[in-house]
Amino acid sequence: MNEKNNTMKKPGLIILMIMAAIACNRINPFLTEWNTPYGIPDFGQIKERDYLPAVKIGIRQQQSEIDAIISNSETPSFGNVVEAYERSGAILGRVTDVLFNVSESDATESLQRIVEKILPMLSSHSDNIFMNPYFFAKVETLYNKKDELGLDREQQMALKNLYDSFVKNGVALDAAGQARMREINMELSSLSNTFGNNLLAENNAFAEQFGVTVSEYPEAMASQEDRSIREKMFKAYASRGNNGNRNDNKDLLTKIVSLKIEKARLLGYDTPAALILSDKMAGTPAAVDKFLGDLMVPAVAKAREEIADMQAVMDEDIKAGILPEGSTIQPWDWAWYAEKVRKAKYALDEEQTKPYFKMENVREGVFNTAHKLYGLNFEKLENIPAYHPDVEGFKITDADGSLIGVLLTDYFPRSTKRGGAWMSNFVNQEVSADGVDVRPVIVNVGNFAKPTADKPSLLTLDQVGTMFHEFGHALHGLLSKCRYKSVSGTAVARDFVELPSQIMENWAFRREVLAEYARHYETGEVIPDSLVAKIEAAGTFNQGFMTTELVAASILDMKWHELTSAEGIDPMAFEAEACRQMGLIDEIIPRYRSTYFAHIFSGGYSAGYYSYLWAEVLDKDAFELFLQKGIFDRNTAMSFRRNILEKGGSEEPMVLYRRFRGAEPDPAALLRARGLAL
Hints:
This protein has 678 residues and is mainly alpha-helical. Helix content is 56%, strand content 5%. Helix 16 (359-374) crosses helix 19 (511-517). It is globular, with a radius of gyration of 25 Å. Mean pLDDT is 94; it is low at 1-15.
């Protein structure tokens, strides 16, 4: 780490560190400078037994720093309050950044137990900070005269974020209210963690039963000819967390919702959604509901057209005696018959495309796109510390040779890794107290097919888009130019954070981009124009289905978080009624059903899953500017870099967007891009 930590000199902490070192007969690696390339965590030295003592020391360190802020007799200023807080908690941040990233990607049973011990400690520590009336008094003093302090925009946002953290944590509550808020926060932390652990167990059980991971499920359903097996796979996939076993999530999710409702009420909000959206771009549940409702109508209309096309193909199977009379498209038929329609309409077969999308080549395409847009250069790092052998590392430099940061990639599934794909930070970008620009260490995680003895990792078209998507998040973290961690990189409003990721997807299948990276893994042949034409022609294929399932999940999320009471609710009955009210057709289920909706019950997307669609309005509108100017127009790219990627959360999102685009986004851009425009 580049940041110097003066509080390490405090006698009490020195004694604690010595005690920890003696207990382990070694120095805890979280308490020393990492002698590693570019600030990469010293994974080779970190042991599971290091986390708990390091967290305890980190909590004590930060609390002493908070105490110093409170006891400071000088007139409160941005420097001795807000900035002092921003510089606090170096050890704690260091260990938790590693712990929670590793626990998501390589969650052994022993590590899960450690996380379970640490979560209540972190919850209590956070409450001790943000319910402290003496600390808040200093923050409030500054906030009330913020317009007189001469703060720049980043400082204003850092102050606002800190003030809001106190308010939303109940600093204004009476003693009884604060005590209850502490209990709620601790319970939510524990229950959310259990929800995620249960889902990991369910995902592993599914993989064991069918020999297919949940990430491979869509591809498997598109290629499984046996309808009875498809039905079994679908029902098993759709019932994860709803099997009445030890991993059942139904009771957990209603407890989580009840606690969220109680928390919102304590803070003066009618519903969790109202509380959560109060500082988002959308602003109110009503705005989100209207946005989603307006999308659902054209999405379902398009999906019905797709069903008609698939039913026509199914009717041919009925005539051929493959299926009995009266057979109709069911949810487990969609992927299979959609693939048949795609082959018939566009002569596009995923098995034709996959040989051109070797994982390493796609990654090369992602890197080359970033080079052309932003002048970035990538260098493979050898023999770097890593938390798993699958992890690879890349040094990224700017056009002038200066260090941008390090990207770690971890793309293959394992039983200890949760499903899906994501980006996260091992080291956040910031400017340290002594003026050092700390460059970030970012990780992109996926669950792509692992190479075999005779075949490399070959990606589906969807997975190609996923790799571009997650790298967009990585760019947001890597290119950040902020002073404070609280506003750097992806620390932005939830309904803005998906803009940098989703806009990157627009380059994935452009002809000029494919020509540079889509090469047959055996022959080296560049993907032929005829196949590219098929990909382009099928670009909006099946968008009725994909948009409907995404909108449905977003509405379901809102329905859960717009409740005023969860008492006596049957989760599956509630979900069924929500689907009926939103007009969801029987042939489609929400992208995530309630019992495996980790985004909202164990992640950070509560009342926020809509943000993928909200940000898509921004990304499609933004990319239309690239189409006008040229998709690799350097001036447009550098404007996006300066006004969006470098700024993090240092200014209001719409201010940043207007500065780049010159206007507010056109909502119709999303419908045009998805082929849903009426």
